[in-house]
Amino acid sequence: MTAPGRRSSTFTRLLRHGFTDPSAAERLLDGVELAAVRNDPVLLEALGATADPDLALHGLVRLLEAQPSPTARRELLDTVIAAKPLRDRLLGVLGASAALADHLARHAGDWQALVTYEPRDLHPGVEEFERGLAGAADPVALRVAYRRCLLSIAARDVCGTTDVAQAAAELADLATATLRAALAIARTAAPDDAALCRLAVIAMGKCGGHELNYVSDVDVVFVGEAVGGADEGKALRAATRLASHMMRICSETTVEGTIWPVDANLRPEGRNGPLVRTLASHLAYYQRWAKTWEFQALLKARPVAGDLELGEEYVAAVEPLVWQAAERENFVADVQKMRRRVVENIPVAEVDRELKLGPGGLRDVEFAVQLLQLVHGRADASLRSGTTLSALQALAAGGYVGRADAAQLEDAYRFLRTMEHRIQLYRLRRTHLVPEAEEDQRRLGRSLGLRTEPVSALNREWKRHAAVVRRLHEKIFYRPLLDAVAQLAPGETRLSAVAARERLVALGYADPAAALRHLEALASGVTRKAAIQRTLLPVLLGWFADSAEPDAGLLNFRKVSDALGKTPWYLRLLRDEGAAAENLARVLSAGRLAPDLLMRAPEAVALLGDGDGRGGGGGGLVPRERGPLEQEILAAVGRAPSAEQAVTAARGVRRRELFRTAAADIVGSYGTEAQPAEADQGALVDLVGGAVSDLTAATLAGTLRAVVREGWGDTLPTRFAVIGMGRFGGHELGYGSDADVLFVHEPREGADEGEAANAANRVVSEMRRLLQLPSADPPLLIDADLRPEGKSGPMVRTLKSYEAYYRRWSLVWESQALLRAEPVAGDEELGRRFVELVDPLRYPVGGLGEDAAREIRRLKARMESERLPRGVDPKLHAKLGPGGLSDVEWTVQLLQLRHGARVPGLRTTRTRQALAAARDAGLLGEEDAAILDEAWVLATRVRNAVMLVRGRAADTFPSDVRELAAVGRYLGYGPGRAGDMLDAYRRTARRARGVVDELFYGG
What we know:
Elements: H1 9-16, H2 22-30, H3 41-48, H4 53-66, H5 70-82, H6 84-96, H7 98-106, H8 119-122, H9 126-133, H10 139-159, H11 164-189, H12 191-196, E1 197-203, H13 205-208, E2 218-226, H14 232-251, E3 262-263, E4 276-277, H15 279-288, H16 292-298, E5 302-306, H17 308-322, H18 331-340, H19 362-376, H20 388-397, H21 403-427, H22 438-447, H23 454-483, H24 497-506, H25 512-523, H26 528-545, H27 550-564, H28 568-576, H29 578-588, H30 593-599, H31 626-639, H32 643-670, H33 681-712, E6 718-724, H34 726-729, E7 739-747, H35 753-771, E8 782-783, E9 796-798, H36 799-808, H37 812-818, E10 822-826, H38 828-842, H39 850-867, H40 885-899, H41 911-920, H42 926-950, H43 961-970, H44 978-1001
Parallel strand pairs: 2-3, 2-4, 7-8, 7-9
Antiparallel strand pairs: 1-2, 1-5, 6-7, 6-10
């Protein structure tokens, strides 16, 4: 007897053998079923070798209890102790699968299926499984026979007799035999239907690819034909009844549970299409309507049941179509969409546990292999395998994937598939989530042979393999492209020039020959620069391919690298700062504006990193505030020997900061691997508008200082101020906006008024000239057309002249324009007094008269009819079209003119702020305000996108297909979704116009 407080030797031995609940195990071993062998070292050793010794022991006791007689119990126990093959198989299954233990407890004689240990038993095929299912005449019997066969597959799997690929093939063969048995039951139940038709069952997906999971939907497609002279319609209806019955036999839940769902949704038209079609109908659909993903699915098509001759005819007929898919007009867009589908629709809480669809998961490997098969399989029949690992090995043998990369990817795929098998085997449930409970992870780790600290070892190995897949998933597309233009190690197979061009075209490159030349220039040679670029390019090429302009991205990268390649910090930045390389790829392939700004001073690439920027200014992509910007520009102006050089320096700062803002906008709109795209579109609009407006104001301040200093020294004979108007005053400038301004001056005390006026006019003239001088920097155009009397009036006036004009001659449109007036440069006191002068005009006490309101509506209607360009679709004109910027702004401005005197929040130059204030004051409803804000933000984003993409301003969507796709990408629409973008714009604008009609024209 064990002394109190001391553990028995059995307890200690059980702990040593991996039991987590030795006390419960002791009680089971002391029970009547195992009393005779409780101290047998062979049994304890075998239990300790299982994935879960506690589970295995519990399952063994249940199996012994289920035996029909003491003799049967003794036979089982004797066989377990005496026969090592059975012992390892039976206990291995019991320790890995609670579901199969339940089956054995219900069907106590099925353990005999594990006794056979002959060579033909080691690798059974469809024929052997058909024998195992023979005699199952109804769904219940079929389920029992199916699980009996599954027992033998699981036993070989957990004991290591078969590897994961062989186990998956056996599961597919068992599924084939089961489909045949189910169809036979259905045919027996409806002999008249069976006599009318030929019915072929085509396996798709993992079953078709000979790589099935333990629990998975079995994807199928049905092909039917009439027998003899039977009516085709009647024959198809009969075939449909047979197919439906076969699916129910496999899928329905009975007293013995279910087998697996049979899924026919990969058929033409999916669940909306007929369940059974003729071969001709299948072909007609695939030739006319099928999408690229449907040809991808057909890679794995394999006839498995029913009329196999008809099934072979089907496969032979669709195979040529599969290998022509890469030649389809929309293949590139479809490929890019498919690549993004990998991580779509995964709940956020499950992403980190998702073994199949998550980053670095099984789908990454399968998709990459299938895409390469589609691209290269049309010219190389050796690649046409439906099995992932076989196809990967063929791709490596042909040089389409590097051998080392393929080997690493295969190892990772085998490990992840084995994990998936073991997870599903436990409960025989369809899941791809790694369990969270420690006991489940312990059993999973031990089932993979990780016996020392199985939980931590499992997570370490899983993350390591997932990281390999993540790293190689993109690399296997692009690394061989570099090998095609580089020196290879002996024994390596080079991707042919033709294959390299095919792959580049498939990835979206319009000029593959030029792309290969760029790759050769970047990656060839033995310099440190070439070595680093060879490392970076596989990933960069993938980021370029994500854009609408991959060719431009690669060309621009070559230009930047040619300019900066010998600069030590440039290569270090791209290699060591994670964000820099991806940010650069996004910026270089998003359109013309940002690359043009960068090419004029490539050192600005430093802004794309995480640290401090080099070449002036702070690093990072956060736009700088007005104060520091103005200080930098004024300091640069102070160092310059002449006004022209000073303004050149100021324009250089402006160019750099425009690039920073554009890059921040692009990265925020596209998102990165580490940071998703900015969800708040309004925030991006405010970022651009505020940054460009502050930058313009600082540039004008520096230019004014330079002009005054050169012409008059420290003091101008008149006070001088620049008043921002329009979008400039509203802090809403876009990349291509002119600077709308008014100029105001006031002679200093004792100064001659004529001399002061001349000085003010010279300042204006010189500022405009210097800011438009041809140079590498973009010009800043000053527009003063909103001044009193327009183009006919003087360019600059005194404050008193403005006062006299506005008191006597001011028109209602001028009051409206002054809603945007805000001092931006020059004499702050004079600017403040100008604002005091115009406030009564823009916020009239008592509000706006009805006559004035009618005049504003008349002007708006006239502008809509006269200023909209001919031949342009008004519904897609972001500025003047219905629901565009003009509609929203005039509506908000009418509210400001009417109510600004009594609602302080309306006294702002900013459209969105004024709209929010009007909503808060109850001047319009929450929903109407949201509709107008959404439309204004979207229209502004469209204008910004067009400027970024085309490099020149426009108010309409581009007509060029690639440019339109690039605008769509910026706005968050993936490849092939330009039509969705235009529909969404029309819908948003239409709703906004409805609100405008009510508030502006009807109010």
